[in-house]
Amino acid sequence: MAASLLLLATGSTLMASPASAAVEAKVPGPPVVDFPDGNSVSAGGQLAIRFGVSGERPVTRFRYSVGNTTLGSEVPAAQDGTATVTIDVGNVTGERPVYAVSVDRRGRISPMTQGAFTVYAVWSLQGRAIDANTWLPVEGATIRLEPAGVEIVTGPDGIFQVAVDPGLYTLTGTYAGPPSLSGSSQPLELDGQGLWFDLLLFPDDQQPLR
Questions:
Q1: Which of 92, 99, 141, 150 would you call most buried, defined as having the most Cβ atoms within 10 angstroms of its Cβ?
Q2: 154-205, pLDDT tens digit by residue?
Q3: Of 46, 42, 51, 44, which is closest to residue 73 (Cα–Cα)?
Q4: How far is it, in rounded angstroms, from Cα 75 to Cα 52?
Q5: Which residues form a coiled coil (predicted)?
Q6: Could you tell me which CATH class the domain 28-120 is placed in?
Q7: Fold matches, 28-120 and 125-206
Q8: With contact defined as beta carbons under 8 Å apart, do 109 and 100 qualify?
Q9: Phi–psi pair at 97, nearest 5 degrees
């Protein structure tokens, strides 16, 4: 008999009490986080975030936060159990997490869920430094944008990128060589919508007349 009791005890599974299971079942499901207009946005722009219900229990509101888990913001749920907010994303680029929980009318809170969106830089001007003799990209050329006073060094593909306020600017480029190269542009009108411009760099003894 003792052996039978021992076998029963070691082979049994502990079950949650009916009361405990009922409490767990009443907690609302974690919200679904999505982005109606897409999950990428340019720096300085705005982004729509939508929260939805994932379980059968109705919720009255959602708590959320961007970039941390403080859940310091709150939005009421509509009759269909969803809510949409629009946020200013600021100028910090890269991936940004969104954390959220659902809350029902009794104040019961769901487990936390997470979504993410990406903020990308808006380049006012992009281009490539090109050797005017070989038509190859020039790596390591220094590109200067005036009157902003911004300097950029080109990468392996000769590409340069810069973000500045709209206005009239002039590009100059220099390369120490060998051979040493330089070049400049006519004034460029930057309107904030993005412009691509290839800057030709000439040997110092072959500079074009302007």
A1: 141
A2: 988 999 988 877 889 999 999 998 889 999 888 888 876 678 999 999 997 7
A3: 51
A4: 12
A5: none
A6: mainly beta
A7: yes
A8: no
A9: -85, 150
- Whether 93 contacts 119, CB under 8 Å: yes
Q: Could you give the residue ranges of the DSSP H alpha helices within 12-94?
A: 18-26
Identity of the amino acid at 84 = T
Domain ranges of the chain: 28-120, 125-206
Task: Take residue 85 and report the two structure tokens written for it.
Answer: 């907010």
H-type alpha helices, 112-162 = none
- Let me know: does 35 contact 117? Beta carbons within 8 Å: yes
Tell me which residue of 134, 137, 167, 135 sits closest to 149, measured CA to CA. Answer: 167
Beta strands (DSSP E) in 55-166 are: 61-66, 73-76, 83-88, 94-103, 113-120, 125-131, 142-146, 150-153, 159-162
Tokens of 197: 């411009």
Q: Supply φ then ψ for residue 25, to 5 degrees.
A: -70, -25
- Kindly compute the dihedral angle of the four CA atoms of residues 7, 13, 17, 18, in this order, to the nearest 10 degrees: -110
Give yes or no for residue 209 having a pLDDT over 70: no
Q: Which residues contact 36 (CB under 8 A, 6 or more apart)?
A: 48, 50, 84
